[in-house]
Specification:
By secondary structure, the protein is mainly alpha-helical. Helix content is about 70%, strand content about 5%. The protein contains eight helices and two strands; from the N terminus they run H-H-H-H-H-H-E-E-H-H. A two-stranded antiparallel sheet has the order 1-2. A hairpin with a 5-residue loop joins strand 1 (about 140) and strand 2. Helix 3 (about 30-65) runs antiparallel to helix 4 (about 70-90) and helix 3 packs across helix 5 (about 95-115). The longest helix is centred in the first third of the chain and has 35 residues, at about 30-65. It is elongated, with a radius of gyration of 23 Å.
Length: about 180
Protein backbone atom coordinates (compact mmCIF):
# COMPACT_ATOMS: atom_id res chain seq x y z
CA UNK A 1 0.00 0.00 0.00
CA UNK A 2 2.98 2.37 0.32
CA UNK A 3 2.84 2.81 -3.48
CA UNK A 4 -0.43 4.69 -3.04
CA UNK A 5 1.28 7.09 -0.64
CA UNK A 6 3.35 8.59 -3.46
CA UNK A 7 0.94 7.95 -6.35
CA UNK A 8 -2.36 9.10 -4.78
CA UNK A 9 -2.08 10.58 -1.31
CA UNK A 10 -5.83 11.01 -0.81
CA UNK A 11 -6.46 7.37 -1.74
CA UNK A 12 -3.69 6.35 0.70
CA UNK A 13 -5.42 8.33 3.49
CA UNK A 14 -8.79 6.71 2.79
CA UNK A 15 -7.29 3.22 2.67
CA UNK A 16 -5.24 3.78 5.82
CA UNK A 17 -8.29 5.05 7.71
CA UNK A 18 -10.29 2.00 6.58
CA UNK A 19 -7.50 -0.38 7.65
CA UNK A 20 -7.31 1.28 11.06
CA UNK A 21 -11.10 1.17 11.52
CA UNK A 22 -11.18 -2.51 10.64
CA UNK A 23 -8.18 -3.29 12.89
CA UNK A 24 -6.02 -4.62 10.02
CA UNK A 25 -2.86 -3.40 11.73
CA UNK A 26 -0.52 -5.64 9.75
CA UNK A 27 -1.60 -4.00 6.46
CA UNK A 28 -1.07 -0.40 7.62
CA UNK A 29 1.80 1.52 6.03
CA UNK A 30 3.26 2.36 9.46
CA UNK A 31 6.35 4.21 8.23
CA UNK A 32 4.36 6.75 6.25
CA UNK A 33 1.61 6.94 8.88
CA UNK A 34 4.15 7.89 11.55
CA UNK A 35 5.64 10.47 9.17
CA UNK A 36 2.21 12.02 8.61
CA UNK A 37 1.32 12.09 12.32
CA UNK A 38 4.61 13.86 13.09
CA UNK A 39 3.90 16.23 10.21
CA UNK A 40 0.56 17.19 11.77
CA UNK A 41 2.35 18.49 14.86
CA UNK A 42 4.83 20.42 12.75
CA UNK A 43 1.99 21.87 10.71
CA UNK A 44 0.18 23.11 13.82
CA UNK A 45 3.35 24.73 15.18
CA UNK A 46 4.13 26.24 11.76
CA UNK A 47 0.58 27.66 11.65
CA UNK A 48 1.03 29.37 15.01
CA UNK A 49 4.43 30.73 13.99
CA UNK A 50 3.02 32.03 10.71
CA UNK A 51 0.11 33.77 12.44
CA UNK A 52 2.45 35.18 15.09
CA UNK A 53 4.71 36.67 12.40
CA UNK A 54 1.71 38.20 10.63
CA UNK A 55 0.36 39.55 13.92
CA UNK A 56 3.70 41.07 14.97
CA UNK A 57 4.21 42.55 11.50
CA UNK A 58 0.88 44.38 11.65
CA UNK A 59 1.44 45.48 15.25
CA UNK A 60 4.77 47.01 14.18
CA UNK A 61 3.19 48.69 11.18
CA UNK A 62 0.35 49.94 13.41
CA UNK A 63 2.87 51.43 15.83
CA UNK A 64 5.35 52.86 13.33
CA UNK A 65 2.98 54.03 10.59
CA UNK A 66 0.12 55.68 12.49
CA UNK A 67 -0.69 57.92 9.53
CA UNK A 68 -1.77 54.87 7.49
CA UNK A 69 -3.61 52.33 9.63
CA UNK A 70 -6.04 50.86 7.10
CA UNK A 71 -8.86 48.64 8.34
CA UNK A 72 -7.07 45.67 6.78
CA UNK A 73 -4.30 45.92 9.40
CA UNK A 74 -6.82 45.73 12.22
CA UNK A 75 -8.59 42.88 10.41
CA UNK A 76 -5.26 41.04 10.09
CA UNK A 77 -4.41 41.60 13.76
CA UNK A 78 -7.83 40.32 14.83
CA UNK A 79 -7.74 37.33 12.50
CA UNK A 80 -4.21 36.30 13.55
CA UNK A 81 -5.19 36.42 17.21
CA UNK A 82 -8.29 34.35 16.47
CA UNK A 83 -6.34 31.75 14.48
CA UNK A 84 -3.76 31.38 17.27
CA UNK A 85 -6.53 31.13 19.87
CA UNK A 86 -8.32 28.43 17.85
CA UNK A 87 -5.11 26.42 17.39
CA UNK A 88 -4.46 26.56 21.14
CA UNK A 89 -8.06 25.59 21.92
CA UNK A 90 -7.63 22.52 19.70
CA UNK A 91 -4.22 21.71 21.17
CA UNK A 92 -3.73 23.28 24.63
CA UNK A 93 -0.18 21.87 24.77
CA UNK A 94 0.71 24.50 22.13
CA UNK A 95 -0.01 27.38 24.53
CA UNK A 96 3.64 27.66 25.54
CA UNK A 97 4.74 27.49 21.88
CA UNK A 98 3.70 31.11 21.29
CA UNK A 99 5.98 32.20 24.11
CA UNK A 100 8.87 30.09 22.84
CA UNK A 101 8.36 31.34 19.29
CA UNK A 102 7.88 35.06 20.10
CA UNK A 103 11.47 36.27 19.60
CA UNK A 104 12.09 34.30 16.41
CA UNK A 105 8.76 35.37 14.96
CA UNK A 106 9.47 38.96 15.95
CA UNK A 107 12.78 38.92 14.08
CA UNK A 108 11.02 37.77 10.91
CA UNK A 109 8.24 40.32 11.37
CA UNK A 110 10.82 43.06 12.01
CA UNK A 111 12.60 42.29 8.73
CA UNK A 112 9.30 42.21 6.84
CA UNK A 113 8.15 45.46 8.46
CA UNK A 114 11.35 47.18 7.37
CA UNK A 115 10.90 45.97 3.79
CA UNK A 116 7.20 46.78 3.60
CA UNK A 117 7.37 50.21 5.23
CA UNK A 118 10.72 51.46 3.95
CA UNK A 119 11.66 52.22 7.56
CA UNK A 120 15.24 51.30 8.46
CA UNK A 121 15.35 48.02 10.36
CA UNK A 122 17.44 49.71 13.06
CA UNK A 123 14.41 51.86 13.97
CA UNK A 124 12.55 48.76 15.17
CA UNK A 125 13.75 47.41 18.54
CA UNK A 126 16.10 44.44 18.28
CA UNK A 127 14.16 42.53 20.93
CA UNK A 128 10.39 42.15 20.82
CA UNK A 129 8.98 45.10 22.79
CA UNK A 130 5.71 43.31 23.49
CA UNK A 131 4.97 40.43 25.84
CA UNK A 132 3.16 37.42 24.41
CA UNK A 133 0.22 38.26 26.71
CA UNK A 134 -0.15 41.69 25.12
CA UNK A 135 0.38 40.40 21.59
CA UNK A 136 -2.46 37.90 22.05
CA UNK A 137 -4.75 40.27 24.01
CA UNK A 138 -7.69 41.13 21.77
CA UNK A 139 -8.13 44.55 23.41
CA UNK A 140 -4.53 45.74 23.03
CA UNK A 141 -2.79 47.78 20.35
CA UNK A 142 0.60 49.52 20.60
CA UNK A 143 0.87 53.29 20.77
CA UNK A 144 2.89 55.31 18.31
CA UNK A 145 6.54 54.54 19.08
CA UNK A 146 6.04 54.85 22.82
CA UNK A 147 4.89 51.62 24.37
CA UNK A 148 1.35 50.36 24.56
CA UNK A 149 -2.12 51.25 25.64
CA UNK A 150 -4.83 49.03 27.02
CA UNK A 151 -7.71 51.32 26.07
CA UNK A 152 -10.34 49.85 28.36
CA UNK A 153 -8.14 49.78 31.47
CA UNK A 154 -6.78 53.27 30.80
CA UNK A 155 -10.25 54.69 30.25
CA UNK A 156 -11.53 53.20 33.50
CA UNK A 157 -8.46 53.75 35.72
CA UNK A 158 -7.25 57.14 34.56
CA UNK A 159 -9.79 59.04 32.42
CA UNK A 160 -7.69 62.22 32.12
CA UNK A 161 -4.63 60.30 30.94
CA UNK A 162 -6.85 58.35 28.56
CA UNK A 163 -8.18 61.63 27.14
CA UNK A 164 -4.64 62.98 26.60
CA UNK A 165 -3.49 59.76 24.96
CA UNK A 166 -6.63 59.62 22.84
CA UNK A 167 -6.04 63.17 21.61
CA UNK A 168 -2.37 62.49 20.86
CA UNK A 169 -2.94 59.10 19.25
CA UNK A 170 -6.01 59.70 17.12
CA UNK A 171 -5.67 63.37 16.28
CA UNK A 172 -1.86 63.41 16.04
CA UNK A 173 -1.59 66.26 18.54
CA UNK A 174 1.91 66.55 19.84
CA UNK A 175 2.22 66.40 23.65
CA UNK A 176 4.02 69.76 23.40
CA UNK A 177 0.88 71.40 21.99
CA UNK A 178 -1.58 70.24 24.62
Amino acid sequence: MSGNYTADFNLWIEQTAQLLRSHHWHEVDVEHLVEEVEGLGKSERRGIASQLIRLLLHLLKWQYQPQRRPDSWLDSITDSRTQIELAIEDSPSLKSYSTKQLQESYQRARRQAAKQTGILISVFPEECPYSVELVLDEDWLPLVNCGYLDLEKSKKNNPSLYQKIFMQEFFCISPLHQ
